[in-house]
């Protein structure tokens, strides 16, 4: 699979700095969605806040570099959430990347393929859709493929970005957590993540054709117990599957915080989740130069 650099996208002006690179993951139409004709958009605000990205057709990753004086060679693909209708591109994307940059981690914010929205209010469309399981089911394998392609790209181009090809992981939120879980169950040798961090994932949507891989990477899982979507038990299920296979996993169930908190400050226990995650990265030896 060939890759190439895109110029900075005008639609990303709400989220990108002048130094960020946007990399298209596929040369030509993304496999499986060749006939899609809609256009990616970004709006500054919806009922869920903002900015949000929607109608992703050509998957990309955007690079956020740490200061060279603190860079440690660890890289992470970040998959924002949004029910596969939209991407909470800042609170679950670039804000996470900038927090991790302070710890020396190079981030690649992923825009994966989504359900086509017919209006400029994807949050409203999502909330009006009722049971979205059947709607998003055809999209999940495509989004998973984008996550795998992102891991493969970062590993192949590790030297270009000053990262260690054996320290490339993925973190995802909500639907992005589904992407992260799907990557964790369906990789090849070239696309195997070295660590995986599903944050309030919709784990039940994860395709698991062969169960937990024999060389499964370590997991960090975090969800709020009061998640209104009832996702806390799904995180427990993921933890149980990983540990039943005798693989490394750490599970945090935080008493309060709801769903979709990302890097938003709510004055609730979930406000400290990023510290728990970076503590875990440190214990894994992933913050050492």
What distinguishing features does this structure have?
single chain, 289 residues, alpha/beta, Rossmann fold, 9-stranded mixed β-sheet, 3-stranded antiparallel β-sheet, 8 helices, 12 strands, disordered N terminus
Task: Explain what the structure shows.
The structure is a single chain. The chain has 289 residues and is an alpha/beta fold. The protein has one domain: Alpha/Beta hydrolase fold, catalytic domain (Rossmann fold, 3-Layer(aba) Sandwich). It has helices at 90-101, 122-127, 133-136, 140-156, 158-161, 175-186, 232-244, 273-283, and strands at residues 4-6, 21-24, 41-43, 52-54, 60-64, 75-79, 86-87, 106-111, 168-173, 196-199, 219-224, 249-254. The strands form two sheets. The chain has a nine-stranded mixed β-sheet with strand order 1-2-5-8-6-9-10-11-12, with helices on both faces. A three-stranded antiparallel β-sheet has the order 3-4-7. Strand 3 and strand 4 (52-54) form a beta hairpin. Helix 4 (140-156) crosses helix 6 (175-186). The chain is globular and about 45 Å long. Residues 1-18 have low confidence and may be disordered.
Secondary structure layout plus pairing:
Blueprint: E1 4-6, E2 21-24, E3 41-43, E4 52-54, E5 60-64, E6 75-79, E7 86-87, H1 90-101, E8 106-111, H2 122-127, H3 133-136, H4 140-156, H5 158-161, E9 168-173, H6 175-186, E10 196-199, E11 219-224, H7 232-244, E12 249-254, H8 273-283
Parallel strand pairs: 6-8, 6-9, 9-10, 10-11, 11-12
Antiparallel strand pairs: 1-2, 2-5, 3-4, 4-7, 5-8
Helix pairs in contact: 4-6
């Amino acid at each position: 699979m060939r890759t190439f650099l895109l110029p900075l996208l005008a639609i990303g002006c709400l989220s990108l700095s002048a130094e960020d690179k946007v990399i298209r993951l596929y040369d030509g139409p993304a496999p499986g969605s060749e006939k899609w004709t809609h256009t990616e958009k970004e709006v500054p605000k919806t009922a869920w806040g903002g900015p949000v990205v929607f109608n992703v057709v050509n998957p990309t990753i955007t690079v956020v570099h740490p200061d060279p004086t603190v860079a440690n060679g660890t890289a992470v693909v970040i998959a924002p959430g949004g029910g596969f209708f939209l991407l909470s591109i800042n609170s679950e994307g670039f804000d996470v990347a900038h927090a991790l940059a302070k710890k020396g981690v190079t981030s690649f914010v992923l825009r994966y393929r989504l359900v086509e929205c017919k209006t400029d209010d994807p949050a409203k469309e999502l909330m009006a859709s009722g049971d979205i399981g059947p709607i998003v089911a055809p999209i999940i394998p495509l989004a998973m493929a984008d996550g795998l392609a992102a891991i493969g790209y970062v590993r192949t181009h590790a030297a270009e970005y000053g990262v260690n090809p054996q320290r490339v992981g993925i973190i995802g939120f909500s639907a992005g957590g589904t992407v992260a879980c799907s990557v964790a169950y369906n990789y090849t040798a070239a696309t195997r993540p070295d660590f995986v961090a599903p944050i309030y994932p919709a784990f039940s949507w994860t395709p698991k054709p062969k169960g937990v891989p024999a060389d499964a990477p370590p997991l960090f899982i975090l969800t709020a117990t009061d998640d209104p979507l009832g996702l806390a038990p799904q995180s427990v299920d993921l933890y149980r599957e990983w540990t039943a296979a005798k693989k490394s996993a750490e599970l945090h169930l935080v008493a309060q915080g709801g769903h979709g908190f990302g890097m938003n400050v709510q004055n609730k226990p979930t406000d400290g989740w990023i510290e728990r995650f970076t503590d875990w990265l440190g214990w894994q030896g992933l913050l050492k130069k």
